[in-house]
Write a structure and sequence with these properties.
It is a single chain. Helix content is 72%, strand content 1%. By secondary structure, it is mainly alpha-helical. It has one domain: MFS general substrate transporter like domains (Growth Hormone, Chain: A). The two termini are 25 Å apart.
Length: 493
């Protein structure tokens, strides 16, 4: 699945066509596709408001609770692995509709669950929807965006994700406040925590309905030999100039006699193409810097400084607002200064802030319950460092990785490669999420590991990631599959 291919050979669109392409149509269809990211963020974070209630209502231990919380991530990995191949067979829009249905089933199934394993089952169903959305949105946006604004439109995916997280925090808080507690009955005698899941049905229906209003990806249409339809979509997106050249170039990059499969990721000489390893590396580093620890377990940090549980919840919402605002910074900068510089700046900022937190927590005292205590200046510095870490991540690795995953793979392998990279991301997310509780008494060690990963992420980008700013997808991918799988620019770092 790929980005825009509407440039003439050797460059971007002519000025007239580029102005046409960067108009309302491209923004509108990218916004609809990015709604999958909103559901992705909402579904990922909604469990936070219901954790204690699920444990209390179903009388389960910490191990079962941890599995119930993390089960959605396993579903997401499975969804990501399969979404690309399904999208190659039935189309990008059909897969969006499937994701919307999965979110809807998860909302009602979890909301009306009467035992913990029912919660797990429907969280996995929702997780599969999350995994599907995490693959299909960046790929579709890249395939329908002109080079000059592809980065900004691709960043809408991350903006939607962090907005979904924020929305779930706000909805959870409002429902909890209205009922007098998450485990108190609200409308129709149904507990507030159940309404937290049921509320997800609304954006799921909106996403599914809007998926009927946007066109199919022109690259999928060309691959399916539906040239007249592809011509019509490309004409709407890019104008009439160079239309046949665009279609010819897409055709050339998609030429094949067999059907797409996982085997496409392997070089003729054996092993995965280098570009696939780069995508997988970006995905894993995005999670190994520990960003989800800040969102899933931020109350530990706030309470360590002396805030109450209620105050900690408010500050968690504030942190999510910071994440939304810094994503807007990335959208403003990504097509001006490029993907690679943003990633390098972000890695540097994350390394400094995480190592600062590692040093502070390594020297913290523990109370009788094993919780860290950070009195005085050390607590304030830790809080500032935590929020600056969110700023560094939100303006770089958060949105930029999704943009790169949507555009960096050649047309022939995009679906499978993006699916593998996204599955790796969810597996890494799961690993960080389930290991952190065991490290709560060793936060210095935990943040030290995340800081080391931030340093390594910068070295990885400097050595292996190519700049894709303003380059049409067909121009960018012409040589990738011929040699060892890495374009010269990437080899040179």
């Amino acid at each position: 699945m790929a980005g825009h291919g509407g440039a003439p050979v050797g460059g971007d669109l002519p000025v007239g066509d580029e102005q046409f392409a960067s108009g309302k149509t491209a923004v509108r269809i990218a916004s609809v596709a990015a709604l999958g990211g909103l559901l992705f963020g909402y579904d990922s974070a909604v469990i936070n408001g219901a954790v204690d209630s699920i444990q209390e209502d179903f009388g389960i231990g910490n191990a079962s609770l941890g599995f119930a919380v993390a089960s959605a991530l396993l579903g997401a990995a499975a969804g990501a692995m399969t979404a690309g191949r399904i999208a190659d067979r039935i189309g990008r829009i059909a897969v969006m509709k499937i994701a919307a249905v999965l979110f809807l089933i998860s909302a009602f199934g979890t909301g009306f669950a009467h035992e913990v394993w029912t919660v797990v089952l429907f969280r996995i169903v929702g997780g599969i929807g999350v995994g599907v959305a995490s693959v299909i949105a960046p790929a579709y946006i890249a395939e329908t965006s002109p080079p000059s604004i592809r980065g900004r439109l691709g960043s809408l995916q991350q903006l939607a994700i962090v907005s979904g997280i924020f929305l779930s925090f706000v909805v959870n808080w409002l429902l909890q406040y209205a009922a007098g507690g998450p485990n108190e009955p609200l409308w129709f005698g149904v507990d507030a925590w159940r309404w937290m899941f049921l509320a997800m049905a609304v954006p799921a229906v909106v996403y599914g309905a809007l998926a009927f209003t946007i066109p199919e990806s022109p690259r999928y249409l060309v691959a399916s030999h539906k040239i007249p339809e592809a011509r019509k979509v490309l004409s709407t997106l890019l104008g009439q100039k160079n239309l046949e050249i665009t279609i010819t170039r897409i055709r050339e990059t998609l030429e094949r006699e067999d059907k797409p499969s996982w085997r496409d990721l392997r070089k003729p000489t054996g092993g995965l193409f280098g570009i696939v390893w780069v995508g997988l590396g970006l995905s894993i580093f995005q999670q190994f810097v520990g960003i989800n620890v800040i969102f899933y377990y931020s109350n530990v940090l706030w309470q360590a400084v002396g805030f109450s549980a209620d105050e900690s919840a408010v500050y968690t919402v504030i942190t999510s607002v910071i994440n939304v605002l810094t994503t807007l910074i990335a959208i403003a900068l990504i097509d001006k200064i490029g993907r690679k510089p943003l990633l390098l700046i972000g890695s540097s900022g994350m390394a400094v802030t995480l190592i600062t937190m590692a040093i502070i927590f390594a020297n913290a005292t523990l109370d009788a319950e094993g919780n860290p205590s950070l009195p005085g200046a050390s607590g304030v510095i830790a809080l500032i460092a935590a929020n600056l870490f969110v700023v560094a991540f939100g303006m770089s690795w958060g949105p930029v990785v999704w943009v790169l995953l949507g555009e960096m793979f050649p047309n022939r392998i995009r679906a499978a490669a993006l699916g593998l990279a996204a599955a790796g991301q969810w597996a890494a997310n799961w690993l960080i999420t389930v290991t952190f509780p065991g490290l709560r008494e060793h936060l210095g060690l935990a943040y030290g590991f995340y800081g080391l990963c931030a340093i390594l992420s910068g070295l990885f980008v400097w050595r292996w990631v190519m700049e894709t700013k303003g380059v049409s997808l067909e121009d960018m991918h012409g040589e990738i599959l011929k040699g060892e799988g890495l374009p010269t620019a990437a080899k040179e770092g």
